[in-house]
Amino acid sequence: MRAAVERFFRLAEHGTTVRTEVLGGITTFAAMAYIIVANPAILQFAGLPVGPSTVATIVVAVFGCLLMGLYANRPFAVAPYMGENAFLAFGLIALGIGWQQRLGAVFVAGLLFVVLTLLRLRTWLAASISPSMKHSFAVGIGLFLAFIGLYQSGIVTGFTEGMPTPTTPTLPRPDVPVKLGNLRETRVLLAVFGFLLTVGLMARNVRGALLIGMFATAIAGYLAGVGAKPAAVVAMPFTGEYDLSPIAFQLDVMGVLKLSFLPVLLTLLLMSFLDTLGTLTGVGAAGNMLDANGNLPRAERPMLVDAVACVFSAAVGSSTSGAYIESAAGVRDGARTGLATVVTGLLFAVALFFIPLVAPLQSLGYVYGPALVAVGVMMFGSVRKIDFDDFTEAVPAFVVVVMMVFTYNIANGLTAGLIVHPLLKLVAGRVREATAGGAVLALACIAYYAFGLPH
User: Which residues on neighbouring strands pair with residue 158, listed in sequence order?
Assistant: First the structure.
């Protein structure tokens, strides 16, 4: 059995072992399991009931991870995207449409992704982006992950946190986004402990450093009395409050096929394309899986998995799905093949029966936050591969990073950088260095800002 697994996933070819892949899969699950709670919590604002939405979220993760592992043989876990779910929940409020049409838009966008992938247009577009730009994706996403981890753990918090509401307009609260968190608060101290423990283990090249750090921090939190207790342990999926039928296959596709929905489809298409591209590049860079030009070899299969998973996600009642940047946590722990992704998918399948037990993860930012910061440290190393001696490469790369982090949106950084890159080549008189695919992407990004729904 073990030998068959090693042959199927070509473990020796990728320089890995069953133990390493299993460990990486567990780490990835631990880093992204929050989606079980976060996605339904956000989609309820679009009108989807929380119980069925929780089951749909997990089912999509199981389907996507197994397909990615068995078909694409890549360590990229798949689940409903954060960001796109907020767009569906909050970005479409002004249109006054129901969740059925919102899911219909996700379904149509997924079908278009399938067509673009089969025609190899997505691969062509990805290959047209310069190596410096691709490495800037990894740097930006690494800092983005670190920011999420710092905020979720409380090490960084909103600047107005704890301030009284002003009673006079002449003394408003400062318009500053973030500040240092309360370092005397138990959860923040636990997060600092978890980060130092994790990076210390990483410095000693300890296998499973991220997972060990998370478990140790969780135990410390429980002993300190700040660990949340579950209301129950086991619950049967597909029954009672976890019945999937109220949202599965209830999407409205025909209602989306009209001109007024073009901005919605354009936004979903571009956000998902760039999120996938950024994730594949960022996670690939974290695992040294990119070639000399910064491309992920044989990228068609993981891209096709993303597209199919997106269609499936809409059908069962969830938001746009795709490869998860938190996969970098498992990759950092040594995952290199689809075996790790299969392990992650199986853990999501097990979680179907333990939804009440998983729910307290919502309050455990001090556990997974430090891991995300540690992954950000590793991904930041790609900054060395950006050509800072070439201003036409350095400036677009810088735009990618700062826009991604400071607007708290991966797609904003990617679109801004992809517009600036060919424009700067043109201004510098080096238009021949721009690619046809880069021009297409720039025009699509301009259309996104002009006619889409940027947020």
Answer: 178
User: Where in the chain are the domains?
Assistant: 2-379
Rounded to the nearest 10°, the torsion over CA 217, 220, 225, 228 is: 30
pTM here is 0.74
How far from 356 is each of 54, 80, 362, 365, CA to CA, in Å? 11, 20, 11, 17
Supply the pLDDT for residue 337: 95
Which residue is associated with the tokens 């700062």?
402
Q: Which of 271, 307, 291, 286 is nearest to 412 (CA)?
A: 271
Confidence of residue 195 (pLDDT cuts 50, 70, 90): very high
**What number is the average pLDDT over the span 88-105?**
79
Task: Enter the tokens of residue 308.
Answer: 């199919």
Q: Which helix (DSSP H) or strand (DSSP E) does residue 212 occupy? A: helix 209-223
* β strands within 21-127, DSSP E: 78-80
Task: Check pLDDT > 80 for residue 231.
Answer: no
Q: Which amino acid is at 49?
A: P
Cα gap 282→271, rounded to integer Å? 16
Confidence of residue 270 (pLDDT cuts 50, 70, 90): confident
DSSP 30-56: HHHTTHHHHHHHHHGGGT--HHHHHHH
Task: Determine the Cα–Cα distance for residues 190 and 201; give it in Å rounded to an integer.
Answer: 16
